[in-house]
Structures are given as C-alpha cells and as structure tokens.
From TrEMBL:
Superkingdom in the source lineage: Bacteria
Catalytic activity: N-acetyl-L-glutamate 5-semialdehyde + phosphate + NADP(+) = N-acetyl-L-glutamyl 5-phosphate + NADPH + H(+)
PANTHER family: N-ACETYL-GAMMA-GLUTAMYL-PHOSPHATE REDUCTASE, CHLOROPLASTIC-RELATED (PTHR32338:SF10), N-ACETYL-GAMMA-GLUTAMYL-PHOSPHATE REDUCTASE, CHLOROPLASTIC-RELATED-RELATED (PTHR32338)
First-level EC class: oxidoreductase
Organism: Lentilactobacillus parafarraginis F0439
EC nos: 1.2.1.38
Protein name: N-acetyl-gamma-glutamyl-phosphate reductase
GO cellular component, one term: cytoplasm
Pfam families, A to Z: Semialdhyde_dh, Semialdhyde_dhC_1
Lineage: Bacteria, Bacillati, Bacillota, Bacilli, Lactobacillales
Length: 342
C-alpha cells in the first residue's frame, strides 16, 4: 500500500515515518508538508533524515487522495479540525494522531482545547481508536487516542468493564516525559525548568479528561467525571499513569488479578505483570503498555501502574495498530520493537 504522512517535522511524525518505512505492508511513504510550495528533499525539510533520499511534496488533499491509500496526520491540534472535510466527504481513510476529532461535540472540543472545532457532524463521523477495544475495521476517519488517555484507559479497562470498582472514587496521577509536549520549546519544557524538577500542569483542565470520560462511559454509564492530574517529569520519553480506585464489596486481590489476566492475556502489546510494578524504562522503545497492580485490603483501594512510551503506544505505534486493523494486516505488523534496556 501507499501511505501519506503529514507532520514529519514533528516528534510523533518522525517516529511514525520510521515505523511506516519498516512496515511490511507499506510499499511507499509519501510525505507532504504545509510549508513548501514545490517538491523538496526530505533531508532539507527534516534534517534528522539527512541520509534519506525521499522527496517531500506540498500538502494537497487531491494529490493525496489520488496517489495514496491512507493519510496519517501527525499535526498540532487545531490543524485537522480545518483539514478533515475533503477526506470525510470522499470517505478516504485517515489516521489522525491529534486530539481534533476525538471528542464528539464542538462545545466539548472548544471548551477543552480552546481552539475552533470541526463541525459536530464531522466529529460524529470519526471513530475513536483505542486499539485494544475499539474496532476501526469499518471506519474511515480514525481519531488516534491521546497519550495519557491511552495509559489511563488501558489501566482502568478491566476494572470498569467488569464493574469491580466504585467509579466515583477514581483518582489518576499521571506523569509524562517532555517529548509529550512536542518539539516547540516552552517555559516549562526548557531544560533548566524540566531538569531536576517535577511540575504539575493543567490541574483539573487537561484536555484528555473528557476523552477518558467519553471512553469510560462506553463501558459504564455511571462514569460522569474524573479526578485527573498531570506532572511533567525529567525524562525524554514515557508516561506512567498511577490510578487509584476503591474496590466494590466482595472484590479481593485474586478477583483483580484474574480480571486483568482475562482482559489482557491474549493482547500482544499489553503485559500484565501482576503485583510486579512496571517502570517507564521497560516500555520505552516499544509499543507495549505494561500494567501492574497493588491492592490494599485495609483501605480497599487498588493502585494500578500503567506505563507506555508516549511516542509509540501513545502516538505513532498505536497509529500503526489502527492501520493494521483498518486494512486487515497482522496485528503486530511493523511493531516488532525492542526496549532500549538502559
Ligand atoms: N508527542 C506525543 O507524545 C503525542 C502527541 N500527540 C499529538 O500528535 C500531534 C503531533 O504531536 P507532536 O509530534 O508531539 O507535535 P510537534 O509540535 O512536535 O509537531 C507538530 C507537527 O505538525 C505540523 N504542523 C503544524 N501546523 C501545521 C499545519 N497548519 N498544517 C500541516 N502541518 C502542521 C508541524 O510542522 P512544522 O513545525 O514544520 O510547521 C509538525 O510537523 C499533536 O496533535 C499531538 O497532540 C498525541 C499523542 C502523544
Ligand atoms: C508533556 C505534555 O505536555 N504532554 C501533552 C500531551 C498531550 C497531547 O499530545 O495532546 P493531544 O493529543 O490531546 O493534542 C499535554 O499534556 O498536553
């Protein structure tokens, strides 16, 4: 197949480009960029690929829909809300890594992203693609989940789907490395601020709150809101979502362990490690989500530790999972990756 990519100059786009170049079912990756008016060498547009002889073409939806079978948008938020229309109109396959088409109403998007939304009809036409749970087989426009949302939803899924916890008691303390903020420098991601430091940010107004609630509601309609906090930590890649919730009467550690095994034992990218609590380092460089739990019988709270590489499972890797599901390729095609180890 022929794949189009928009956003190769960004962090998620460059990782996605590497994955697509090595994907056994992708013959060619065509790169398009919004800043150029005529074809340019990739080595000039994105100097990190200095030994790659590929050419980048100016962004043009008609060219993409004529030459390619699918387009990936690894673009900043606020971009695909303006660019999605021609693809939706023609039912052309899109995998969108941004948050623009994840929420289902204009009001919700504008409230949480503070940007102009795509029309509600377009939002409704997009399919949210948490790869382990949402079938995108018949979708055309896939809204790839956010990084924090992925780690948090995968950590909560067995508990909420099997009604093992009081959903009003859920508290999430999530931490991310600085690459999650993209390539643009900001005061908080500046080395001097990020290094040797921990910074809580967007308290109670992180844009992934409504996304997580929206997905949890599919599993349990009693979920209405979420206590969710985000912290910037001094690592480059990786997210740890630490989740707390009070278990329902009759639930014990064995019930919890069995629920996670039952949900995840046949999922190639989820490693349930039981009471061994995973670290960020063990997943960085892979498309895996490693999950462990600690149950406290005195407080009757379960703690779930869910870790991912934000650039892979939280962005480009999950986008490839969605590609594989959309086109019927093997679940693991292009995603046989190894962690960096140290
Ligand atoms: N980093 C992460 O861990 C995750 C990121 N995401 C989402 O994925 C998307 C990309 O993230 P990330 O790579 O970190 O962001 P970056 O800021 O690193 O890159 C953004 C990319 O979007 C391009 N872009 C900006 N404006 C336009 C436009 N008007 N038309 C076309 N392209 C445009 C940029 O090109 P240029 O700079 O050349 O203008 C750049 O290639 C974002 O929406 C982000 O929220 C999702 C999950 C995790
Ligand atoms: C560390 C850091 O700043 N992370 C970003 C990651 C979220 C993201 O990529 O947002 P969308 O995909 O929803 O646009 C943040 O917290 O906003």
């Amino acid at each position: 197949m022929q794949a189009a990519l928009v956003g190769v100059t960004g962090y998620a786009g460059m990782i996605l480009y590497q994955l697509l170049k090595n994907h056994p079912n992708v013959e060619q990756v065509h790169i398009y960029d919004h800043k150029i008016s005529k074809n340019a060498p990739l080595s000039e547009v994105a100097p990190i690929f200095k030994n790659d002889s590929s050419v980048v073409a100016p962004y043009d939806p008609t060219t993409i829909m004529g030459a390619d079978d699918v387009v990936f948008f690894a673009t900043s938020s606020g971009v695909t809300s303006q660019l999605s229309a021609p693809y939706l109109e023609k039912h052309f396959p899109v995998i969108d890594l941004s948050g623009d088409m994840r929420l289902k109403t204009e009001q919700a998007y504008e409230k949480w992203y503070h940007k102009h939304s795509a029309p509600t009809a377009a939002l409704q036409a997009a399919t949210y693609g948490l790869a382990e749970f949402d079938s995108v087989k018949d979708a055309t426009y896939v809204a790839n989940p956010g990084c924090y949302a992925t780690a948090t939803l995968l950590g909560l899924a067995p508990l909420v789907q099997k009604h093992l916890i009081n959903v009003k008691s859920i508290i999430v303390d999530a931490k991310s490395g600085t690459s999650g903020a993209g390539k643009k420098l900001s005061a908080s991601t500046h080395f001097t601020e990020a290094n040797d430091n921990l910074q809580i940010y967007k308290p109670n107004h992180h844009q992934h709150i409504p996304e997580i609630v929206q997905e949890l509601q599919k599993w349990d309609s009693n979920v209405t809101t979420l206590q969710f906090m985000t912290t910037l930590i001094p690592v480059t890649r990786g997210i740890m979502s630490t989740i707390y919730a009070q278990v329902n009467p009759g639930v014990d550690e064995q019930t919890l362990l069995a629920a996670f095994h039952d949900t995840y034992d046949d999922q190639p990218f989820i490693n349930f490690t039981g009471t061994d609590l995973p670290t960020i380092k063990q997943v960085v460089g892979t498309n895996n989500c490693d999950i462990g739990i600690a149950y406290n019988p005195e407080t009757r709270f379960v703690m779930v530790d869910s870790v991912i590489d934000n650039m892979l499972k939280g962005a480009a890797g999950q986008a490839v999972q969605n590609l594989n599901a959309l086109f019927g390729f093997s679940k693991t095609a292009g995603l046989n990756l190894q962690p960096a180890l140290i």
